[in-house]
Design a protein that fits this description.
The N and C termini lie far apart (61 Å). Helix content is 61%, strand content 0%. The chain has 4 helices and no strands. The mean pLDDT is 80. The protein has 118 residues and is mainly α. InterPro entries: RNaseH-like_sf, Transposase_11. This is Transposase. It holds the Pfam family DDE_Tnp_1.
Length: 118
């Protein structure tokens, strides 16, 4: 494997280590965008980016803990969608999830025609 650099005084192993660390940072931000729903950073300072990542990470962990304690069997993505739709509702989370999952599992109860149902 060949790494190109314009810093000739750095050893090849150091360049390789830097590349590995850069790759880990890229994977971390990819995971953040996929799981924490951060599409853009609102600030440009280091403190603003760190604050936004910490808030999103705390939200992710709280939702994961709630999902586990309630014993909900849907994906975390589905659980987040249910919470987003019912954000200002006053129903308990467990009943909201049960109703939403029932609608997902019983698609024939929806008043919509099926394309291949003659």
């Amino acid at each position: 494997m060949v790494f190109l650099t314009n810093h000739f005084e750095i050893a090849a192993t150091t360049v390789s280590d830097i590349n590995k660390q850069r790759r880990q940072v890229e994977l971390f931000f990819k995971w953040i965008k996929q799981h924490l729903r951060i599409k853009a950073f609102y600030g440009t300072s280091i403190n603003a980016v760190k604050s936004q990542i910490w808030v999103a990470l705390c939200m992710y962990l709280l939702v994961a803990i709630a999902k586990r304690q309630l014993g909900i069997q849907c994906t975390l993505y589905t659980f987040l969608q249910i919470l987003e739709v019912n954000l200002f509702g006053k129903k308990p989370i467990s009943s909201l999830v049960a109703e939403a999952l029932k609608q997902i599992q019983d698609p024939h109860e929806i008043n919509q025609l099926n394309l291949f149902d003659y």
